[in-house]
Write a structure and sequence with these properties.
The chain starts with 5 loop residues before the first helix and ends with a strand. Helix 2 runs antiparallel to helix 3 and helix 2 packs parallel to helix 4. It is built from eight helices and eight strands. The protein is globular and about 50 Å long. The chain has 243 residues and is of the alpha+beta class. It folds into three domains: 73 residues, Arc Repressor Mutant, subunit A, CATH 1.10.10; 82 residues, Alpha-Beta Plaits; 74 residues, YebC, transcriptional regulation domain (Alpha-Beta Plaits, 2-Layer Sandwich).
């Protein structure tokens, strides 16, 4: 969720910091498996698989784990009976949520998500009632601190991003989210890398068209809900319109 929600930018780092590497690798494996299942096991012609593999490598997931996950997706190994799921919901303060996941039992996961929402001042929404508040976009995150001169200058970094084809830019502290049309994500990423920009993260996100502000107490309730959802094995991504 990067710019459009604080949670996206910290969640995998937080998971690693909390030493939940087993759960982290499991979620990364599922993402690789479902990408391979849907569009084949060759990352050269499957951009979603390429993104999933790059993410796994950033968190030092062993090469053999990645290869096994691909083979489960292509059917070369058993255990690939997974499907993508997407739930629309409301959270504390009426914030809108899109919850993406991967599961081997949709009914069980639906029940679990419903229970988490009900226990944390949230509720499931009807299909389509929330999604229209978001747009599907490619997101490339870069950190100002990890750049070399002259790219440590915000204006210079923004200029390079625009020249590379950025559709929109959002700063949160010293990190910049570069938004693109989904189909141009790889092209913009390569253009940025050619200019010497070091990239932290690349993803396809649901970006809120408008963000809403809530008071501190409600924000804490939202963060508690995000934590509970993230702890669920089937949840991969959480997007919100929380400012």
């Amino acid at each position: 969720m990067s710019g459009h929600s604080h949670w996206h930018s910290i969640k995998y780092q937080k998971t690693a910091a909390d030493q939940k590497r087993g759960k982290l690798f499991s979620k990364l494996s599922r993402e690789i498996t479902i990408a391979a299942k849907e569009k084949g096991g060759d990352p050269e012609i499957n951009p979603n698989l390429r993104l999933a593999i790059e993410k796994a490598k950033r968190f030092n997931m062993p090469k053999e784990n990645i290869e096994r996950a691909i083979k489960r997706g292509t059917g070369e190994l058993s255990g690939g009976q997974l499907e993508s799921i997407l739930f629309e919901a409301y959270g504390p303060g009426g914030i809108a949520l899109i919850i993406e996941g991967i599961t081997d039992n949709k009914n069980r996961t639906l029940s679990e998500i419903k229970q988490i929402l009900n226990q944390n001042n949230g509720k499931l929404a009807n299909e389509g009632s929330v999604k229209w508040l978001f747009e599907r976009k490619g997101c490339i995150t870069v950190s100002l601190q990890s750049q070399e001169e002259p790219l440590k200058d915000k204006n210079e970094l923004e200029l390079k991003a625009i020249e590379a084809g950025a559709e929109d830019i959002y700063w949160h502290n010293d990190s910049m989210d570069i938004y693109t049309k989904p189909g141009l994500l790889e092209e913009v990423k390569k253009s940025l890398e050619k200019t010497g920009i070091k990239i932290e993260n690349v993803s396809l996100d649901w970006v809120a068209k408008d963000k809403i502000e809530v008071d501190q107490e409600t924000k804490k309730s939202c963060e508690k809900l995000f934590e509970k959802l993230e702890d669920n094995d089937s949840v991969q991504e959480i997007y919100s319109n929380l400012k």
